[in-house]
Amino acid sequence: MSTTPNNEKSDKTVPFTTSDDAAKVAQSGNGIGSTSGVELVNRVAQSAHAAIDKLANQATPAVQHLQKSLEGTGELLHDRADKLRSAGDEWAESARSGVREHPLVAVGTAFALGLLIARLAR
């Protein structure tokens, strides 16, 4: 049984892929020194688990700090978006009221801007 992926070319094979496979080999007595092989696999697995646990414990405070920062940033962005929305609404209402109060000035301004844009577009 080989654990080499299909896309990798290697003549090396591993006699077992999991600790269960290693235990089966040890029980059947097919491997030379299979008991020490099982012990080696178990020690390597325990070391790997310990290293992963240590990395996870070290990363946890940084992840929590980042999460708190992002939550605060999200709230800040929502507040600023609300302020911008309300400022836009106030500006639009101000423009509407100005047009209602002085309709001829609004039409004249629109005409003048149209002429200016037409001249610049040539």
UniProtKB/TrEMBL annotation:
Source organism, top-level taxon: Bacteria
Protein name (database record): Uncharacterized protein
